[in-house]
Write a structure and sequence with these properties.
The chain is of the alpha+beta class. The chain contains twelve helices and nine strands. The chain is 54% helix and 16% strand. Mean pLDDT is 76; it is low at 1-18. The chain crosses the membrane at residues 32-59, 65-85, 97-118, 124-145, 172-195.
């Protein structure tokens, strides 16, 4: 037999080199950690997303940016981790790429959770979630960095081009499919549980939206002991994005009343008013959406009802951070020009601001 005949082919050389690399003893543990982290990213990321929406609601934000952020940071973990574990034995070099991407996402998750844990140290769920995710991520990084794992992940592969392409296409389908499922679940929760009013399902339209908010404000004012009027009123009307059942344009109304200077200057009165509003609203059957102190020390109580009316009292920190009564509707259908409604609490015209709508005097 000639030397040419006895020389190994390129594919045989790759196979022989691959066979010479021992399978890492820590592989099973690493793959288990990948699966655990994928599950944790959903179990921790989803409630954290809900908490972020609650904070967004406090400032009147729709929370869409928070939804995108958490989908981008927590959505890819499950499919990336699964693909890294699935390809670890047969396609180690491809698994290495997935491990790198999963590691980047995991590091960003750990950073975000650390920021939340620092800012919300009194929330046990955040602390436990941060510790669990950080522990799993650190353990995963330590195992992935071991020499035996890195040697395995850089070994040669004897698969042909066609098989590699088919495998990559399958991976892409799994990744996109998983992200699509997660995004669909978030969209369903958003539309039918968190913000049902976004569908436009109300017993009232724009013709009653403003008056409903004014009525809600008038209902709670009597519980404020020694109430001496409001110092300003602001009505903002903003168009809602997205498609709505039945078509047409939909708008969200937000009405804010700032309490008087005397109330702003007295922390005891501000606290008393907040607690009085809380007791009244909960007694009337409203559901508390937020009832705690934020990072700035500002107490807030936010409630809502089945008609997607959202009522809130932000206690504020004084004159520069005013206490206000804030009331919002969900998205209501536009019907045309509306009559102007007088402000409550003796507010002068110069302290009465209306934006986003033209009303008839």
């Amino acid at each position: 037999m000639s030397e040419i005949d006895s020389a190994p082919s390129a594919s045989q050389s790759v196979t022989d080199r691959a066979a010479a690399v021992p399978y890492p003893e820590s592989a099973l543990t690493l793959k288990a950690l990948l699966m655990i982290h994928g599950v944790l990213s959903v179990l921790v990321g989803f409630p954290l997303w809900l908490l972020t929406l609650a904070f967004s609601a406090m400032v009147g934000d729709s929370g869409q940016s928070a939804a995108v952020l958490f989908l981008a940071l927590f959505g890819p973990s499950a499919p990336l981790n699964f693909l890294a574990a699935y390809n670890f034995n047969r396609y180690p070099r491809k698994a290495r790429v997935y491990l790198f991407m999963a590691g980047v996402v995991a590091a960003l998750q750990a950073l975000l959770l650390a920021l939340y844990a620092i800012g919300l140290i009194a929330v046990p769920m955040i602390l436990c979630g941060a510790v669990l995710v950080a522990g799993v991520v650190i353990a995963g990084f330590v195992l992935a960095a071991k020499a035996e794992v890195q040697l395995w992940l850089t070994r040669g592969e004897g698969s042909g081009t066609k098989r590699r392409f088919k495998s990559a296409a399958t991976d892409l389908a799994v990744f996109l499919g998983t992200v699509a499922v997660i995004a669909s679940v978030l969209a369903l929760v958003w539309s039918f549980i968190l913000f049902p009013g976004q569908r436009g399902d109300h017993d009232f339209d724009e013709s009653e939206a403003w008056s409903n908010l004014e009525d809600a404000a008038a209902d709670v004012v009597p519980v404020f002991t020694g109430f001496d009027g409001f110092r300003s009123r602001t009505l903002e009307v903003n168009q809602c994005g997205g498609e709505f059942r039945g078509g047409g344009e939909y708008f969200r109304y937000e009405l804010s009343y700032e309490f008087s200077d005397a109330v702003q200057a007295d922390p005891a009165v501000r606290s008393e008013y907040r607690l009085a509003a809380r007791e009244y609203w909960l007694g009337e059957g409203y559901e508390a959406q937020f009832d705690r102190q934020n990072q700035n020390g500002d107490w807030a109580i936010v409630v809502h009802d089945d008609e997607d009316l959202r009522l809130a009292v932000y206690e504020g920190l004084g004159v520069d951070d005013p206490m206000e009564l804030n009331l919002q509707t969900g998205c209501v259908k536009r019907v045309g020009t509306l009559p102007c409604l007088d402000p409550q609490g003796g507010i002068p015209p110069e302290a009465d601001q209306i934006t986003g709508i033209r009303c008839e005097e």
